[in-house]
Amino acid sequence: MPVHTFDAALTVTDATVTYGSGAQRTTAVDRVSLSVQPGEVVALLGPSGCGKSSLLRAVAGLEPLATGSVAWRGADLAGVPVHRRGFGLMFQDGQLFDHRDVAGNIAFGLQMAGVPRAQRERRVAELLELVGLPGFERRAVGSLSGGQAQRVSLARSLAPEPRLLLLDEPLSALDRALRERLAADLHHILRRAGTTALYVTHDHDEAFTVADRVAVMRDARIVQVGSPAELWSAPVDAEVAAFLGYRIITGNDGDTRGLSPLALRLLGAAEGDAERHSPGSDENAPDLRAAGAGAYTMEGTVVRSGFSRGRTTAVVDVPGWGQQEATAAGITRVEPGDGVRLRVDPGGVIRLP
Fold first, then answer.
1. Confidence of residue 267 (pLDDT cuts 50, 70, 90)
2. Beta 264-269 vs 296-308: how paired, if at all?
3. Confidence of residue 290 (pLDDT cuts 50, 70, 90)
4. Which of 11, 68, 120, 211 has a Cα at 20 to 30 A from 263?
């Protein structure tokens, strides 16, 4: 569990969230503790149903705690309503007001707070510049693309300068390429604004791009917290490693290794007879300890091949390892049934508990 420091902005201690009662009672968050430092972006990462959105909603005050506490700068927020917590919220669909133009949407919170018009206009222009949409003040929100709408939603959330911004799957409705671009933009926007944020996502690439630290959730609990580099280099167990994208291999010696998506490289045709690498054969199984010690080559049989982002990809049956994904450095023609040589990158192999 994370270490709580006295200068933490947000502190969650032994928080439990339940739904229903009696035999129908479900525990969505189970005794979770977490801290967020001033100006830090922490991602809650996990599969659907693991409890991450319920935890975010509890922090916002939208869900009651069955046990535990949520505190800001050491002050318990029990009994403090949502609108008095000083937190901003941004959701998947953006929830923009169709009857207001872009400026009207961004200025809404400022207007409700009684901020003078001239000050509101300056703040709107400043935020549109920050999110990369200068000059969009008079645009109708219905004319915006999905990415532009989410930028406006972000600007609206930042307008009142919330002391904590809560983002619940803000990019999940967008296509992959746009998500990748906006995740990188979000990283820079939140840091330029100096925003403290809690960010919910099921996508580890997105979490690693946006957040300073990532809390991995599973079955209503946090199972590991660390920087993206720490999580990638040392997952706490095979289940976390698999969720992060590693392929899990257990060797004949009983040791378990994780292979990163780029750990296996296609080098070309195999030197020997491909038939001796038929599925199920393990007489030439690679040594997992050697795989973690240094680069070396092995052979396998192509099951299927493809092409992605300018590279040849293939699923290769490797004796003792089963079917594994491999990637070529460029374009390499391979067909099902071909025997191929593979290079194992030691930097892409980790040992698991």
1. confident
2. unpaired
3. low
4. 211
325 and 199 fall within a common domain: no
Tell me: pLDDT of 151 over 60: yes
For residue 71, count other CB atoms closer than 10 A to its CB: 17
pLDDT, tens digit, 9 for 90 and up, residues 177-188: 889 999 999 999
Residues 178 and 227 in one domain: yes
Distance CA 127, CA 131 (A): 6
Beta strand 164-168 pairing with 197-201: parallel
Q: What SS3 class is residue 143?
A: helix
Count Cβ atoms within 10 A of the Cβ of residue 3 and give its class: 0-12 exposed, 13-18 middle, 19 or more buried.
Answer: exposed
Name the maximum alpha-carbon separation found in the chain.
79
Supply the range of the domain harboring residue 147.
10-240
Alpha-carbon gap, residue 227 to 289, rounded angstroms: 27
- Pick from 205, 240, 275: which residue ends a domain? 240
98: helix, strand or coil: coil
The answer to whether position 108 is within a domain reads: yes
Query: Which CATH number do you get for residue 91?
Result: 3.40.50.300
pTM of structure: 0.86
Residue 205 lies in a domain: yes
- Identify whether residues 158 and 305 lie together within a single domain: no
- Do 102 and 72 share a structural domain? yes
pLDDT digits (tens, 9 = 90+) for 300-326: 999 998 887 778 889 999 887 788 888
